[in-house]
Amino acid sequence: MAYGPDSPVSVLKGVGSVRLKQLEKLNIRTLGDLVSHFPRTYEDRTKIVQICDMEVDVPACFRATVISYPRTARLPGGRNLTKVVVSDMTAKLTLNFFNRPYLDKQLRYGQDYVFFGVLREGFGLSITNPEFDTSGARSTGRILPIYPLTAGLTNHTLTGYIEQALTVCLPQMEDILPQDVREQYDLCDAQFAYRCIHAPDNFGDLARARRRLVFEEFFVFSAGLAVLRASRGTQHAAPWTDLDLSPLYKALPYSLTGAQQRAVDQISADVSSGSVMHRLVQGDVGSGKTVVAAAAAYLAHRAGKQTALMAPTEILAEQHATSLGKLLGGLGLEVVLLTGALGAAEKRWVKERISGGQADVVIGTHALLTADVEFSNLGLVVTDEQHRFGVRQRAALADKAEQPHTLFLSATPIPRTLALILYGDLDVSVMDEMPPGRQPIDTYLVDETMRKRINAFIRKQVEAGNQVYVVCPAVEENEETELKSAEAWYAQLQNETFPDLRVGLLHGKMKGADKDAVMRAFSAHELDILVATTVIEVGVDVPNATLMVVEDADRFGLSQLHQLRGRVGRGAGKSYCVLFSESKKPETLSRLNALCATQDGFRIAEQDLALRGPGDFFGDRQHGLPEFHVADLEVDVKTMQQAQEASQSLRSAAIADDPQYAPLLRRIKALFNDDTNRFN
Ligand code: ADP
Ligand code: MG
Fold it and tell me: What's the sign of the alpha-carbon dihedral 637, 640, 644, 650?
C-alpha cells in the first residue's frame, strides 16, 4: 500500500462516487489536495464552561447530563422540533433540535455529553442545534477546524478525510523551504505546519503553522517571478539612441501631465539601457496611458523598429487604431489594424505591410502574437488593459516573441502592498495624476423608492442626445437570488419602461462577434441604452455616454464599481453614476458611500482591499494573482515582505540546478502552470 500525495481521494475509506463528485467541486482530487485544503476559520472548543457561566450569544462548550426524554412536536411546514433538557449541576438548559428524527437514539436519558452551541435569549434561555460528542474527541473539547464545504459534505466528514490524508502524506512530505531560509526567518518545518493548520493543539502552534504557510505561498510566487526576471536579466537589446520626442509633443493638442512625463522618461531610460524593458504603466481610468504607449511606439519607430499593440477586445483595438492613426500617422508612421473583422484580401495586404516592414504600428487583439503574423523588425510589444490577463499569460508573452521591449498598461489601481508582489517581475511606473479639467462624476446611492425618478432621469439624458449604461450583476434569471439579470432587465426596459427608446443587451455569454456588433452599435449611437454585465468594465470609450446606472451595486467590489463609473465622464458632457442598492447593512452602505465621495481610484482600491479582502478585490479574479489559500494580503504584509526578500536572496540559477530546490521548483511550475519549461 504505497499511497502518497498524488493518490486519488478514492483510496480513502468512505469515498465513493458521490463523495468524489463533492470533493471535485472543492477542487480536491488527490490526498495532497486534501492536505492543502485549509480551514477557513477555527472554533475554540477547548474550554469547557459551566452552564451558569455561559454568556448569551457567545459560542461555548459545556459538559452536561440529559435529564429529560427527548420530546418531539410537529411544526407547520412539515418540520419537527425536538426538545431535550440537560443539566450540569450548576443549571438546567433546554436544547432545541430541528428535524432530528433519531435524536432519542443519540442523546440518551441519564448520559453525559459534551455540547457546543450558542446560548440565545428567547422564551427563556436555550440553545438551538448544538453539536455534541459522546467522547468529546471530534467536534468538541478541541480547536475545531472549519473548512470550506460544498452541498452534502459536512465539516465532520471532511475533517475525517483530511485526517486520513495527513496520516499518509505527512511522513513523505518534502519541505520546499530551504533549511537556511527556515532558520533565518524562524519558520517551523512543513510537517509541523501542515499538521497544526488542520489540528492545532493550541493557538500558539496554529499561529506558527499559519505564518510558515503564508510565507510559503508568497515565497513560491515571488521566487517564481524572480526566476522569470533573472532569466530575462541576461536579455540584451541594442540601445535605442534617438530619444527625441519633440515632434510628438508638438503634435499633441495638450502637454503631458507630470505623471505621463515621468512614465515616458522611464521608458526612454529603459530602451536606451541595453537590456530588454519589462515595464508596467499603472494609472487610473482616464489618466492618459494611451499617449504614453504612443510615445514608446514613436521611439521604436525612430530606432527602426515595429510596435505591436494588443487590446483585449476588437472594439478597443479599433478605437486605438483610429486615435493613434491620427496622432502617429501625422508624424509619418504607418498604423495598421489587424482584426478578425477584416476581409481576406485586406488581411493579406495588412500582413504584407507588416512582414515587409512598411507598417510601423500594428494594432490588434491577442491573436496578434499567435496568428501567422510575421513582423519584419518587432521591437516593442504593448499590452493594453493588462489586468485582464494574468501572470501566466504575462510569462507566456515574455516567451513568445524574440525579446522585444514590453510595456503593459493597466487601469486597475493596485494598492502598493499588492503591486509589490503581483508585479515582482516588472518595473512599475505609477500615473497618479489626472489630465487637467476633468469634471467629477456625480455619484448617488439610491434605493427602489427612487426608481421612477431615475427612470425619468434616464429619459431626460437620452432626450438630450446622450447615452446610458445600465449594469446588472447577473446574466440570467436565477431562482436562488433576486439579483437583477441583464437579460430580464433588458426585456423589462425595452418592452415596458422605454418601448420608444433603442435598448441593447451585452453580456459575457454572447459570442465575440455579437458582442462587438452591439458595442459598435452603441459607439455609433444606434442605441440609447445599453444593458450589460461587467463586460463593459474595460476600455470602451463612448464619450457620448453620460450616465451609468448600476443595479444591485452592493454585489460589486468598489474597484469594479470605479472601473464601471470610468465608462462615463469621458466627453464634454456632465456625467453621473447612480448606484441602486436595497442593502440596509451599515458597512455596505458606508462602502458605497465611500465611492460617492471620491473619484480617486487608488484610495478606493485601498479601501476595497481593507474592507473586503483580496479574495474579492476585483470581483472575478481579473488581477492575475494566483489564489492564496492561507495568506491574507491585508494582514500578512510583513510576512510577504520577508518572503519577497528571501526569494530575492536565492540565486535563481541555483533554483534550477541545485537538487535541494527540486521541491520548490516543482511548486513554482505547478503555480505558473508551466508547460514551456520556462523555468528550466
Ligand atoms: P486611459 O489611461 O484610461 O487609457 P486615455 O489614454 O484613453 O486614458 O486618455 C483619456 C483621455 O484623456 C483621452 O481623451 C486623451 O486624449 C486625454 N488626455 C490624455 N492625456 C492628456 C493630457 N495630458 N491633457 C489633457 N488630456 C489628456
Ligand atoms: Mg486605455
Answer: positive
